[in-house]
Structure formats: C-alpha cells, structure tokens
Specification:
The complex is a heterodimer of chains A (352) and B (73). Chain A has 352 residues and is of the alpha+beta class. Helix content of chain A is 42%, strand content 13%. Chain A has four domains: 109 residues, PTS-regulatory domain, PRD, CATH 1.10.1790; 61 residues; 86 residues, Gyrase A, domain 2, CATH 3.30.1360.140; 47 residues, DNA polymerase, domain 1, CATH 1.10.150.390. Chain A has a four-stranded antiparallel sheet. A four-stranded antiparallel sheet of chain A has the order 3-4-6-5. In chain A, strand 8 and strand 9 form a beta hairpin. Chain B has 73 residues and is α+β, with helices and mostly antiparallel strands. A four-stranded mixed sheet of chain B has the order 1-3-4-2, with no helix packed on it. In chain B, a hairpin with a 2-residue loop joins strand 3 and strand 4. The longest helix of chain B is centred in the first third of the chain and has 11 residues. The chains are: A alpha+beta (352), B alpha+beta (73). Chains A and B meet through helix 10, helix 11 and helix 12 of A and strand 2, helix 2, strand 3 and strand 4 of B.
Chain lengths: 352, 73
Amino acid sequence: MPTKNDRGEKLNVSPGEAVGVVAAQSIGEPGTQMILRSFHAAGISSIITTKGLPRIIEIVDARKKPKFPMMRITLEKGYAKDYEKVRKVWRKLEEVTVSKLIKERGGFSEDLGARIMVLNLDKERLHTYEITPSQVASRLKKVSGIEIGMDGMEIRIKVNGTKDMKLTRQTFVQIRKAVVSGVPNIEKALVQEGQGGEFYITTAGSNMAAVMDIEGVDKWHIYSNDIFEVARVYGVEAARNLIAHELFETMSEEGFTVSFRHPALVADAMTHTGQIRSIGRHGVAGEKESVFARAAYEETVKHFTNAGVFGEVDRLNGVAENILIGKQISVGTGMVRLAVRKDELKKIKAEE
Amino acid sequence: MPPSYEPIPVHELLSESETAKVAKKFGISLDKFPKINEGDPQAKKIGAKAGQLVAIHREDPTGKYTYYRYVVR
C-alpha cells in the first residue's frame, strides 16, 4: 500500500501548472531505467503475468486482450476461511477438457479407417476434479453424429455421421477439446492463502462474467488484469481504477516510487470519453482538437490533407500548435491574459 | 493477495439543481465533463439517462474526492 504524502495532500495544483507534462515525465523517466526484458516474471504461484515495462506499454496502448490474462478471486465471508468450501469453488473454475481427464500415456487411441476412438480415463485425474466417467459420457452425447459405449474407465466412440476421413478427424479433435466442467477461458486455477488465513483463488485466463455467477465468489471484488473486460463488467470507473493502480503497482514492484496522481491522470485521460482509449496515434493523441498538434505528432500529411478537405479550423488553444507558430504557450504565467479598459487608461494620463 | 483497493467507487445520480451547481462551480458546460456511457454497468445500476450528471465518490492514495461524469448515449 502506498504511503500518504502529507505535503502533497495539502498542496493543490497551482493554476496553469502543466500537469500532463509532469505526469508524462514522472512515468517516462523511471520507464527508461526499467529492465526491458522482464517479460514474464513468474511468481510463486506459477501463474504467469506480464511485468515491468512491457506491462506498462500494454496498459498505455490499451490492448484488447492482455498477453497473459489472469484473475484473483476473493470469496465471501462464510467461504474464505473454510478450505473445503474454497476447494468446491475451485473445482467449478478450472476449465476441464476431456484431454485433461484421460491417462497421460495411452490416454486415447483412434482408428480413422474404422472411425473408432477409445478414451482411457485416468482415475486420479477424475478424482481431483470430482468427475465421474458417466459425466464425461453425458457431455460427449452433445457431440453430434457419434455413438458412445462405456466400459468402466474406457469410453468407446464410433463416428456414424460421416464417412469422410477429414470430418472424422475433426470430430475426434472436438471430442478431446470438449469442456466437461469449469469456466471457459480459465486455463488454470490455484487456491492460495492470504496473510489473515483467508483463501483466495488465482487463475490464468479471465472470464469475470461467468465467475460472478458462481456461489461463494465475492462478486464485486474480483480482480482481473483485462482492462476491457473490467470496463464491460464493472464499468469505466473500475477500469480507470485498474489502469491507475496497475501502472502504479507495476512501477512500485520494479522499485520506483511515483506519486499516485501521475498514473491517475493518465487513467483519467484514457477513460475521459467513457470508453478506453490508448495514449498515442489511435487514441488520446490522435483525437486532439488541433490540426497542428496532431500533425506535429504523427502522420503529418494525413492530418493536413484531411484538414484541407474538410475545412477544419484550428483555434490555437493548445501547447503544440502555439509552439509551432511561435506564440507564447498558455501554460503557467503564459496563461494569464491582461484586459485593459481604454477609457480608464486615459484618466491616468490626464492625472499626470 | 486480495485487491488493495475498492474496485468500484460509489456512483451517485445528481438532481437537476445539483447538476447546475456543479456546472457553475467548474464554470464549464455539461458536455465538457468526462463522459460515462448510458450502457455502462454502473450507470445502468443507478438508472442514469443521457444528459444527466453522475457524481463518483473516489477514494485513492491521493485522498477522497468527487469526480463527475456526464452521461452520454
């Protein structure tokens, strides 16, 4: 948890302060010192997430899906400290496909000519996920055009629907990928213990909407590192919180102290329209009011030709365009305008 | 570790008179405020319609403060 900066709390920003520039530098400078190749530091949990500079770039670019989506699920009061109950929730989470339930060696054999596939279920694996062979069979009944025969731990499948070898092969793959239980997109789930003895679940893969429906899950306190999913399920404000805290925490983890207001400003700018925009050409910088400011940044010709074709007007209010034309920028003392009453001026002269 | 912060801040729908007060305080027209979509889960929850102003009671390491968002379609 960040410590509160008392001095900073008392100070309000003075009018005309270039907060954006200060924020950009406060994040940019530590960024230059960060290790570029800390791509995915795996924690104790063995659930991989992006860390360091790559993660910051990922957030600021507003990628539709993070490279390694993950969730941290906290549980309701009655559940959090009871390991058995937590295990129950956990079992519902992890996506269990048929291929996860068969033996590691010789789990299945297939005969494309005779269109027969034999699955050899693994007893231990069935036990960990608490799935019975008949559950697997009833799931497979949903696959069309096949006939299922069961013999203890063995499931024999005959494809009747087609004689085409390619289609048969596709059906076999479909069978092995069939989800028997769990939440789609959640590749892995781990139960972990917090400091207070309460358990929480960390998952690789993210699917907030589906997890919210599971009994015992603290619906409104799911952490996901997928910004767009958070925006969809919790709303923009939650997304802005995530952006700000994620930027802040990624930097803290690397050992850099930044005042929270800088990442917060970035997050506010990114969510200003109610949607999530990236910083840069396709987002915040590319949607600036001024033609000159946009042209000065990237794709100069595109912006000038468009401005010419559509008759855009530049009001010269921003910083970049005023530097470009050599006017004083409206930042700091440059923001102050003087208005003089001419008739009052005459009076002064007369007195002299 | 469980999240170190409250993910969703409290959203409050402002009445017309409160809206006018806030707009006057900042000295800008309503469409200059940051926006929130009408279809946003939190906007739906409080039943905000386009043209209204939503107060968001934030609490983060910089302190407690209120942020405003203008509801758009």
